[in-house]
Design brief:
This protein is α+β, with helices and mostly antiparallel strands and 163 residues long. It contains 3 helices and 7 strands.
Length: 163
Amino acid sequence: MKRLATLAILSILSLFVLAILSTGGLSLTKVPFLSFGDDIKLSGTAFDQKTLDQVSKITELTFPAGTQGLEYAYFGSGIDDSMVAKIRIPAGKKEEFMTNLPFASDDGTAPFPIMGHGQPWWKPDTLTERSAAEKTLPNERPLAVIIGHQGGEVIVYVTWSCT
């Protein structure tokens, strides 16, 4: 008798859960511990000083005065947030920026994170006089930066992720 009562209760619970799931009353995207953020893409003037300040905050990079954001993509819809950016540094401030990390000369053969692949503007391989640096920030957040020249300008490509 107890076994029959247990089976009846399990059957009712199963039907209840099935009804909730089939009506959209409960979905994994609505469970707070699985909620993810948004993906954000900015280009040109939309990549403003406020966004550049946010890049500086999460990467711990200090950008010199006159730095300009060119392209930005923040991927917040997955389990681990990540960010890629293309930034213009004033030509006379390249050395100042390079004091952020221990940069090493890069002939284009050094590995570089591929997070920016798929973005039409992600072309660090077109830089000349390249230097690259990588660092693991607190909480195991990898940061990679390539700086070089492109069309007479000093360009920085930045990748960051929160693992």
